[in-house]
Amino acid sequence: MTTREHMPSWVTTLRWVGLILVGGIVLGPFLWALSTSLKVKDDVLRMPPKFLPWPLTVENYQGILTAGFPRYLLNSTIVAVCSVVVVVLVSVHAGYAAARYEFRGKSAMLFLILTGMAMGELSTVLPLYFFGTQLRILDTYGILILANSAFIAPLAIWFLQGYFRSIPPQMEEAALIDGATRAGALYRIVLPSALPGLITVSLVSFVHSWNEFILALVLTSSGTMRTVPVGIHLYLTDYGVDWGSITAAGILSILPVTLLFLLLQRHFLRGLTAGATTGF
User: Fold this and answer.
1) Which stretch of 20-24, 29-33, 40-44, 129-133 has the lowest confidence by average pLDDT?
2) Quick check: 237 and 227 in contact, CB under 8 A?
3) Helix 195-211 / helix 141-165 crossing angle, nearest 10 deg
4) At a CB cut-off of 8 Å and minimum separation 6, what does 232 contact?
């Protein structure tokens, strides 16, 4: 088998060319949005287009930050963080029970949870709307947190039950012999060992809640409850598209998710690998 040291130069060249092309495809839209967000209004739709913005301006960022966009960021943060807490609490206990206990109806229960993963957001919009109307929680954080948690929890339960099965049960048995309760063994022994899996579930839940658009659009109506995706959509008007504001808002909206992934990518990849290959 050919090693890297003896690999033909043309193979190395093709690999670099391929990496550059893939990098251009992935980073191209982001770089174009960043360039557009720093252009003056006259240069945004100039033909032929200018890739490098000159003169540079931050008026697009100033415009959205002095309007309602900070409120959208706050709403999305509250909904995403609270959804992560709910999803982790539910999926940890449900996933642990599915991984460690045998009981009647377990297979049917897991099948019903699996069917929840197959339900799209569009199929749940109307039931959630009527549910929120009856409980008078429309246009509140509660309905958004509930909707996002319910949608991502089935995936989190299936993922964590697979991850818990990868942890040797002898660790918990030793803790039980030493006098720990089942709950104590879960919180003190299993969860620290399952930290990569918990981080993976938390990150997936956060990203889903942060990017969710359909439910946030239908279940909220006031300007004070709009999330980031809905707020960005408002820049599409009957009078045209404010490309400068849209791109500036888009750049700001991806910064929290990008920062989280960069900080947690090592644990995320470990958790994703272990949970995806065990117990399914």
Assistant:
1) 40-44
2) no
3) 150
4) 246, 249, 250, 253
Contacts made by residues 26-31, CB under 8 angstroms, sequence distance 24+: 30/254
pLDDT at 82: 97
Distance from C-alpha of 209 to C-alpha of 147, rounded to nearest angstrom: 9
Among 21, 40, 57, the domain boundary falls at: 57
CB atoms under 10 Å from CB of 78, counted, come to 15
How many structural domains does the chain have?
2
Distance CA 226, CA 216 (A): 7
Does the structure show a pLDDT above 80 at 5? Answer: no
Q: Residue 184 belongs to what domain range?
A: 60-276
The terminus-to-terminus CA distance of the chain in angstroms comes to: 34
Map 114-183 to HEC letters: HHHHHCCHHHHHHHHHHHHHHHCCCCCHHHHHHHHHHHHHHHHHHHHHHHHHCCCCHHHHHHHHCCCCHH
What tokens appear for 3 in the block? 């090693």
* Dihedral angle, C-alpha 230, 233, 235, 240, nearest 10 °: -160
pLDDT value of position 140: 93
Shared-domain flag, residues 136 and 11: no
pLDDT band at 141 (very low <50, low <70, confident <90, very high): very high
The one-letter amino acid code at 122 reads: L
Pair 50, 75 in one domain:
no
CA distance 202 to 156: 9
113-140: pLDDT as tens digits: 777 777 777 778 888 899 889 989 999 9
Both structure tokens of 224 = 């004070």
| Residues 64 and 52 occupy one common structural domain | no
